[in-house]
Amino acid sequence: MKTLDQLRHSYKQSEAKALEAFQKFLSFPSISSEAEYTPHLLECAGWLREKMNSLGLTTQLWKTSGHPILFGEDLSAGPSKPTLLIYNHYDVQPVDPLELWKSPPFEPAIRNGQIYARGAQDNKGQCFYVMQALKLLREKNGGYPINIKWLIEGEEETGSEGLEGILAEKSQELKADYLAIVDLGIPGPNIPAITLGTRGILTMDIVVKGSNTDLHSGVHGGIVFNPIHALVHILSSCRDKEGKITVPGFYDSVSPINDREKERLFLDFDEKEYHQAFGALPTGGETRLTPFERAWTRPTLEINGIHGGYTGDGFKTVIPAQASAKISCRLVPRQDPKQIGPLVAEYLKSLAPEGIEVEVNVHPGSGSACRSDIRSKGVQAFSKAYEEVFGQPISYTYEGGSIPIINALSEASGSEVILLGLGLADDYMHAPNEHFGIDRLEKGALIMALGILNI
């Protein structure tokens, strides 16, 4: 019997029990951005540690400035074998708006082969199939064919500040040949793909102030400059009619994708399917580029939230004292967030009309873009695993999203990065009704197990 068939048979034998455990994992409301959920994060970490212990890993709970980090290892394969460090996270995004969920976000529900819950895809589903892969390998071999280290953090959704703060201290424990970031996706349900890079991220707030109190629009309208008008003007000035960002110096270090790089990417984009899935047309960004080129290889500046004036029921005719917005930039290789942040902040301030004060707060927790090497033995080992499980040739993609800790973790561990995952764009991660396919739990476990055997 082929190795894949053996692994699949073993998985099927314990699938029902595994699904129960996955539902338990999803039931922990491990929201890292809100302090009231700290006890639930600790409870979730405790549950995970028990599971890691059951896999024969020697585990530690690393205390940080924020939520604890789980670390487990089995180095019994010995120094002659390579070491793989696997990264996941157990924290999740908030659930708002709650009224849009079809079932409670922390009461997992199965519908049409999908399991619905906050964190089902990002990142508990992908974390859970790693767990199942390690279980399959132990059952098959009585141990692991290579040295395994597994790190699961609790603050990815808030910038990984706790992990970043202890990387220097824990660098020896983290040493590895390969770093598998299991938090990525594939272009479609039947398209095996490995990600070769992610974009970086930078976030900030802008506050526009005009007066020391809200003003009556009848008395003061036409005299003062409305802060909302000023904010809208500032934000709309950040992009030109072709979708390019107008911040001076923003593109200075950006190189266009070359033909060789473009040839190996999966660039097919079905506009009709996209519109059906999300109700939006792919008309944003730089108009001269394809949708995937815009999402994977070009930087962006997006407005993520805007507030000002009276927004309750009824009507209140005020000129607000201030207006504000939240902004994020996705960055590409060679764009340093420490340089781009001040560039954007100064540009926003320079657009302030007379009589308007502008404050910009660039947040900590930014991260640079990441790229992995297609020639890496680790990337090729998992490429073969994807091909065997899916039964078709591998594709390569980039990821428009960001995992800020990747570069710092790779540097601390001295390892080559492998970017893995089975997420889909329509899994609704970070949105109401997040879900993950039960079939992908199986595929993920098989891919991880085969990839480890291939290294």
TrEMBL record:
Keywords: Hydrolase, Metal-binding, Protease. Its EC number is 3.5.1.14. Transmembrane segments: none annotated. Residues 197-355 form the Peptidase M20 dimerisation domain. Gene3D superfamilies: 3.30.70.360, Zn peptidases. It holds the Pfam family Peptidase_M20. GO terms for molecular function: aminoacylase activity; metal ion binding; peptidase activity. GO terms for biological process: proteolysis. This is Putative peptidase.
